[in-house]
């Protein structure tokens, strides 16, 4: 069961460096990328609010963003926030695809994330969980780690736990092939593989992206905060010629979506065309064979 969150502010194998608690009050940032607040919620299963933040520190040589270092932390929500726990990348330059899901349904959710190494099919999945005995966030381990990860998916089940599917892939100039590396169940502090190796897609194409809304709340935006937030809504895919609706889809709670479509040109935007707020604009997107076009659908909340 996905834990209900108070606010979603923005929105992506295990590294050898063990996460440690950090005593400083604020993360070090650089001109490369300011910190992003990803989500706010009860991540330790209690009443205290925490927020997930990510940021990057620049490579000392200044070569490029691909040589930056990624960081993820949990901090308290208060006027002078405290970092409660922090994880750092080793060769990873970006943390993305962050989801908060209570996989084992114990009241404290798992924080699932992908840490990117610099290629479209070269991410590392890392999962963090509040350990009640240790009173700290800990990193969970995978039995039989997957290399070259492309994405993951949470499978809800009627039983006591949900499952986590990890996908890997390879691509050439013509095709992309995505396969299921493993289906994992959380048992204690270990993800145990229960299934894997099935082919799930060959040369798929379509549209993927995220819906966001702004302003996310009334009043002035404080320094370091984002004025936008992921937006759960209904989108429609329409034909470019006559505007006929081809497909309708729901975005996730993080505003993200992914829809398989044959190559062609489409319009994507709000399913409802009424003039009332929130308002969103349609975008024209061209889908190419074996590729997913990426778009961001922006909505105006009407708050000023």
Q: How does this model look, in words?
A:
The protein is mainly beta and 304 residues long. It has two domains: 7-147, Lipocalin (Beta Barrel), CATH 2.40.128; 211-300, Immunoglobulin-like. It is 0% helix and 50% strand. The chain has strands at residues 7-8, 33-41, 50-57, 69-76, 83-88, 94-101, 110-116, 123-131, 136-142, 149-155, 163-171, 176-187, 190-195, 199-202, 206-214, 229-230, 234-239, 245-250, 256-260, 264-270, 279-280, 283-287, 292-300. Strands 6, 7, 8, 9, 10, 11, 12, 13 and 14 form a nine-stranded mixed sheet that branches. A five-stranded antiparallel sheet has the order 1-2-3-4-5, with no helix packed on it. The two termini are 35 Å apart. Mean pLDDT is 77; it is low at 1-30 and 198-202.
**CATH architecture group name of the largest domain:** Beta Barrel
The count of helical stretches stands at 0
Shape: globular
Q: Sketch the major β-sheet.
A: 9 strands, mixed
Helix and strand element order: EEEEEEEEEEEEEEEEEEEEEEE
Counting helices, strands and paired strands, the structural category is: mainly beta
- The number of distinct β-strands equals 23
């Amino acid at each position: 069961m996905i834990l209900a969150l108070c606010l979603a502010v923005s929105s992506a194998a295990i590294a050898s460096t063990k996460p440690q608690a950090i005593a400083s009050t604020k993360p070090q940032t650089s001109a490369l990328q300011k910190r992003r607040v990803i989500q706010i919620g009860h991540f330790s299963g209690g009443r205290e609010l925490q927020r997930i933040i990510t940021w990057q520190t620049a490579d000392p040589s200044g070569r490029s963003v691909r040589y930056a270092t990624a960081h993820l932390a949990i901090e308290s929500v208060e006027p002078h926030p405290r970092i409660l726990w922090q994880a750092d990348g080793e060769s990873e330059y970006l943390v993305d695809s962050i989801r908060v899901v209570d996989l084992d349904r114990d009241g404290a959710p798992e924080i699932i994330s992908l840490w990117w190494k610099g290629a479209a099919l070269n991410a590392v999945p890392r999962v963090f969980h509040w350990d009640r005995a240790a009173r700290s966030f800990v990193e969970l381990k995978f039995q039989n780690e997957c290399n070259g990860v492309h994405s993951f998916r949470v499978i809800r089940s009627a039983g006591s736990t949900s499952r986590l599917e990890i996908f890997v892939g390879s691509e050439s100039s013509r095709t992309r092939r995505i396969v299921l590396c493993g289906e994992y169940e959380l048992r204690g502090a270990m993800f145990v593989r229960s299934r894997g190796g099935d082919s799930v897609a060959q040369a798929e194409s379509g549209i993927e992206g995220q819906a966001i809304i702004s302003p996310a709340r009334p009043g002035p935006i404080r320094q370091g905060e984002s004025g936008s937030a992921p937006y759960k809504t209904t989108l429609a895919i329409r034909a470019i010629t006559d505007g006929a609706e081809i497909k309708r889809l729901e975005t996730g709670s993080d505003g993200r979506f992914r829809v398989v479509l044959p190559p062609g040109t489409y319009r994507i935007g709000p399913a409802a065309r009424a003039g009332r707020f929130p308002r969103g604009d349609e975008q024209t997107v061209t889908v190419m064979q074996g590729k997913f076009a990426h778009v961001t659908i922006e909505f105006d909340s009407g708050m000023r």
